[in-house]
Predict the structure.
Amino acid sequence: MALIDLPPPPKPAGLYRPAIIAGEKVYLSGFGPRRDDGSPLVGQVGRDLDLAAAQAVARNIGLTILSVLQDTLGDLDRVAQVIRITGMVACGPDFTQHPKIIDGCSLLLAEVLGERGAHARMAYGVSSLPNGSPVAIDCVCLIRP
């Protein structure tokens, strides 16, 4: 597993938990990107962010996912397998490169967790996301005791 500096896990922005352990799985809430000061990054892909910037945003969310996993599980070694991520991209109706954006997160998970970071995935476009986020990603993982 690659060593990486993780940001602190975000505080919930509503009446929910960042993660819930249910049996052998951990379900993560959807997360958007944060700036270094913790404030949300806003915009629409294709209008305010280009492909490269949106991929960097997805990578940023991947760091948040890893941070929440570490905080919830105590150790990333407890992640047996990332099962699935779902990526939502705020964009206009003509934008079609959703999977390339979510690759930013997928590549990070594989980089840090190796084969355990490989996963099934859904990526799609939406007209808006909470707090004006350009990208949001959730995650489900199989965990070790």
Q: What stands out?
A: The radius of gyration is 14 Å.
